[in-house]
Specification:
- By secondary structure, the protein is mainly beta.
- 6% of the residues lie in helices and 53% in strands.
- A hairpin with a 4-residue loop joins strand 18 and strand 19.
- The longest helix is centred in the first third of the chain and has 19 residues.
- The radius of gyration is 29 Å and the shape is globular.
- It is a multi-pass membrane protein.
């Protein structure tokens, strides 16, 4: 009897354990015609447990340790997301057939550190899947901006790259290492501190989430205007491989490959490669070859280790190299300045018996004699550990990254030897550590809390050197001494610029469900930032003389300068969001955020006081930005297979950190300053409609007003260089009430795809025709509005036609800028503000074919 009772108790215990804890869930995903769907995303809702289907549509999810019931969510491009509830054991083999509907309706994101439907979260976010990026040719962030018009990216070379969301994030113009970007850039949870990362090719990307507005209570690094949250495809225990190659005009060649599979019972790996090459798009008549080539290679490896059913460990390593003969700018025009007649650009080049090869930038010709080199290497290591504790997941992300920059520029933009050298090679390294917990805390409260630390160093050893034409461009008096042979030839500066920046933060946000429909989401952040900078430049070369008059002339061009700065500050910031789900199709939210961007330091030289000749060290430290942000939005599904989202926002920033292009050559990368106050406000629309199983249409639009509310000490516009008032040369201008640089009032994208079921070489798939367009209105390309540096509005059209399959061979033909529109991406003055200015040109018409084979 005793043994019988014991046996019964044992059986009941086993049954209880079995009901409380799930086992492996397996199944097959097909379309409505029972064709298997490969690479469908399968997720256990509310967790980070996920996988993708293999070539036969099969999947397996390890859910040991999870209590029933569980909801399995299945997502696949072009099909309606499907949910299946698992309530009993043993779990049957699932047979799930997906319906062909718009995947954007229920696309899932991890923006709040857990898997959720994008339409349910109270954040303005745009999602680009890896497949969408591949199909539209968006292989880097510069292409993503054509799909998400709230994003702006300006790049005259990888170092001088700024990425903005809603026109905020990075100051427009030349980069200064002494400030933090306002747009966070994350890849698999790792923060990339260098804006140059946005110029690299994507490698095996699963999804790109573009979050708009401050996100300081969700992400490790504080972000005042938004964040890119990029996830790559993870290793799988199911073997698979993808190979892709593209050919196009201008000798365009792009190859991508990815291989994944099990390496052991608990270890899986993934190896991915991307390479892009293309001939130049601008003819250099001085060298006889085209410049602005593409030459990018990147490789990424990942190892997944699953020591238990509750823990995943991923070790990743990546490296990307770029070796283009590129990023040359072409003279786009000449502005008359307020300087004396002999100091105007046309008078200068006439005296030197020189003429520009063309004054029409769209002739795409130049004669610049200093080589353009934009070599960069970026890479790193990361260790990501996810372990399930209670109702959530504890995540640790540890990473080390580096960036090496090896440039050469022709900053005078001419075939004259004005600046024989202009290069600032840099090495940056960073260490980051983030630990966070995200999940369900009580029946009505969920959230995320974490700590973050980053320590980074940057070392620049720059050189700028004059050539034999420098004397005429720098000539500021009628003294004949300027013509002294060899006075400036070989005269230059070497720069030692160093910065160490450390930041530590505690952050968190909770989601409190007051009712099933009404939620309150408060978030807080405490941050500590410290920056130490050293700047020193030394003059060298030129005519060796003891003549005080000649030495004085040399000093007018370049002078020694050195200063050190050290600063730190702490800040409390936070946000609160109210969200109300009026119905299953309407979700309304409102957010107030108090945010900030950390203190900045100048590490690229300071302007000199016109009276004392000494550096203006009061500009060495830049005040932190103080941000007040309001936003209201509504996410709707007005009818079946549609979304229509609308957002209104208003952001005020005190002590806005802006970049100033100095007239002095010695300030070799411009300098930072604070504008008293700026305001950016506007509205955004995101929409997607499925009119039938054959036709989908996507649209996005944004209206933005960006204004200097108060900026009384702004730099002079290009045409006001040399302005004298009452016999005193003016260095600053009040630009209060004028537009911020880089801000288009209107920007938008519109695209659609027509498709039908088809077979190609025996493979089931879809034949499709897709058209995408992107347009923006004019914008200022100068910190202080200049009528000569206004980029006209433009529109471009892209298209693709082909066949795609989930397995086997896919092929499509593509064309970009089909109407061959001539347009500028940026205008910028030459070093020294002599009056001529150059352009970063948009690409002319390109076309080609892409072949992809999936195993």
């Amino acid at each position: 009897m005793k043994n019988s009772i014991k046996n019964i108790f044992t059986i009941l215990s086993i049954l209880t354990f079995s009901v409380s804890f799930a086992q492996n869930i397996e199944g097959t995903i097909t379309d409505s015609e029972k064709n298997p769907l490969e690479a469908a995303n399968v997720v256990v809702k509310g967790t980070t447990i996920n996988t993708v289907t293999d070539a036969s549509g099969h999947f397996s999810l390890d859910t040991k340790g999870r209590k029933l019931p569980l909801i399995v969510l299945v997502q696949y491009v072009g099909y309606k997301t499907t949910e299946v509830e698992i309530t009993t054991l043993p779990v049957p083999l699932l047979q799930i057939a997906l319906k062909e509907e718009n995947e954007l309706i229920e696309v899932v994101v991890s923006s709040r550190r857990r898997i959720e439907k994008v339409q349910d979260i109270p954040i303005a976010v745009s999602v680009i899947t890896g497949k969408q990026a591949e199909q539209t040719g968006a292989f880097n962030v510069n292409r993503i901006k054509e799909l998400v018009p709230s994003v702006q990216l300006y790049s005259s070379n990888p170092r001088n790259t700024g990425i903005n969301i809603r026109s905020l994030g990075s100051p427009f113009g030349l980069t200064n290492d002494g400030i933090d970007p306002g747009v966070g850039f994350y890849v698999d949870g790792v923060y990339y501190a260098r804006p140059a990362a946005t110029t690299l090719d994507f490698i095996d990307v699963e999804q790109i989430e573009v979050l708009r507005g401050p996100q300081g209570s969700l992400f490790g690094k504080n972000t005042t205007s938004g964040a890119f949250n990029i996830t790559t495809r993870k290793p799988s225990f199911t073997s698979g491989a993808d190979f892709e190659v593209s050919y196009g005009n201008y000798a365009f060649l792009q190859a991508k490959a990815s291989v994944t599979g099990a390496l052991g019972k608990k270890v899986a790996g993934r190896l991915s490669f991307s390479g892009t090459q293309r001939d130049g798009l601008i003819d250099n008549i001085a060298t006889g070859r085209a410049t602005n080539t593409l030459n990018n290679q990147g490789i990424r490896g990942q190892l997944l280790y699953t020591p238990s059913e509750n823990t995943n460990i991923i070790f990743a390593a990546d490296i990307t190299t770029q070796r283009p003969d590129g990023y040359a700018q072409v003279v786009a025009g000449v502005a008359p300045t307020k300087r004396a007649a002999y100091r105007q650009f046309d008078a200068i080049i006439a005296d030197l018996n020189y003429e520009l090869p063309t004054r029409n930038a769209f002739d795409r010709k130049m004669d610049q004699d200093t080589p353009w080199r934009s070599g960069q290497d970026m890479g790193g290591l990361s260790l990501n550990i996810d372990t399930k504790i209670g109702g959530g997941t504890l995540t640790s992300t540890t990473a080390w990254r580096f960036w090496n920059w090896d440039p050469s520029n022709d900053r005078d933009f001419t075939g004259l030897q004005v600046l024989a050298k202009s290069q600032n090679p840099t090495r940056q390294t960073q260490i980051t550590q983030e630990v966070r917990y995200a999940g369900q805390l009580t029946s009505r409260i969920s959230g995320v809390a974490g700590v973050f630390f980053i320590d980074q160093t940057s070392q620049t050893d720059g050189t700028e050197e004059s050539g034999d034409a420098q004397w005429r461009f720098s000539q500021s008096t009628t003294s004949p001494l300027w013509k002294t042979p060899g006075l400036f030839e070989g005269y230059g500066i070497t720069t030692d610029a160093r910065i160490r920046a450390s930041s530590a933060a505690v952050f968190g946000q909770i989601d409190w469900a007051i009712t099933d429909r009404f939620h309150i989401l408060p978030g807080l952040r405490y941050n500590f930032d410290k920056k130490d900078a050293h700047y020193a430049r030394k003059t060298y070369g030129g005519l060796q003389t003891t003549d005080p008059a000649l030495l004085a002339l040399k000093k007018l061009v370049y002078s020694d300068q050195a200063f050190d700065s050290s600063t730190d500050n702490t800040d409390f910031s936070g946000n609160i969001t109210l969200t109300y789900k009026a119905s299953d199709k309407i979700n309304i939210y409102g957010t107030y955020a108090k945010s900030y961007k950390p203190v900045g330091v100048n590490v690229a030289g300071l302007p000199t006081d016109s009276k004392t000749g000494q550096p203006m060290t009061e500009l060495a430290v830049i005040k932190p930005e103080k941000v007040n942000h309001f936003e209201v939005g509504v996410k709707t599904s007005p009818f079946q297979n549609s979304i229509f989202n609308l957002t209104f926002f208003n952001t005020n920033i005190k002590d806005y950190q802006t970049n100033v292009q100095a007239a002095e050559l010695g300030v070799n990368r411009g300098y930072l300053a604070n504008a008293d106050e700026v305001r950016v406000r506007g509205a955004e629309l995101d929409a997607s409609f499925v009119f039938s199983k054959h036709l989908t249409v996507n649209a996005a639009a944004t209206y933005t007003e960006g204004t200097y509310v108060k900026f009384t000490n702004a730099p002079l516009p290009l045409e006001d260089t040399g302005l004298v008032v009452d016999g005193v040369q003016v260095a600053y201008k009040d630009v209060s009430g004028t537009d911020l640089p880089g801000v288009s009032r209107w920007a938008g994208s519109l695209g659609g795809e027509l498709s039908d079921n088809a077979r190609f070489f025996g493979n089931a798939g879809k034949i499709f025709l897709g058209i995408d367009s992107y347009a923006r209105s004019e914008f200022s390309s100068s910190p202080s509005a200049s009528k000569y540096l206004v980029v006209p509005g433009y529109a471009i059209f892209n298209a693709r036609l082909g066949f795609r399959a989930s397995q086997g061979l896919s092929v499509h033909f593509w064309g970009r800028n089909l109407l061959n529109k001539d347009y500028y991406e940026q205008l910028l003055p030459a070093g020294g503000n002599a009056g001529h200015y150059a352009a970063v040109l948009g690409d002319q018409r390109t076309y080609g074919v892409t072949l992809k084979y999936s195993l």
